[in-house]
Amino acid sequence: MAHFCVNCGAPLVLQTIEGHALEVCPKDGYVLWRDPKVAAAVVVEADGGIVLGRRAIEPGYGLWCLPGGFVDDDEDPAAAAVRECREEINAQVVLTGLLGVYHIAKTTASSIIGIAYRGRLVDGESISAGPEMLEVAVFSPDELPQVAFPSHQAVLSAYVRSPAQQGGAELLNAGAAAQPASQPSPVREAPRRQHKR
Ligand SMILES: [Zn+2]
What we know:
Number of strands: 10
Order of helices and strands: EEEEEEEHEEEHH
Shape: elongated
Largest sheet: 7 strands, mixed
Radius of gyration: 22 Å
Distance between the termini: 58 Å
CATH architecture of the largest domain: Alpha-Beta Complex
Structural class: alpha+beta
Number of domains: 2
Bound molecules: zinc ion
Helix content: 10-25%
Number of helices: 3
CATH class of the largest domain: Alpha Beta
């Protein structure tokens, strides 16, 4: 499908750039780059099993899947994962680890970078189906049903293979950690050695 330049409105023309056929503005050089979308999913541990939801929407209507969805532009992926759990299984979840990062290649739509977390229900929380789910249930890891997406199948396989991990506290603060500290703390700073080269 043809598109128009977001700067000047001119019809874009196909050009090969860095080996990719891309649409380019013939007037100002604007390039319609094809970028991946980012999605997050969570293996939520509860009652010795894993929480799955049965989808009330396409794609995959009627099939089971992990709670998850697309990351908004202003969201840390970990925050998006927690939000999707709130929306889809009606429960507050704390992330306890990173399971993996997955590339889901597409040809007719944007490809997806999927980020999979391990998590658990916050104490006292229970699960119920959000508006995009027909039902939610806890499955034993060795009795998992067929799931809607190959990527979710890969995440579940990785989960079943991997031993329990720690480190979830860092996941939600990744953005804050990327900010440089304005003042180095003299208390926490280790003594530095002089290196000569
Ligand atoms: Zn243009």
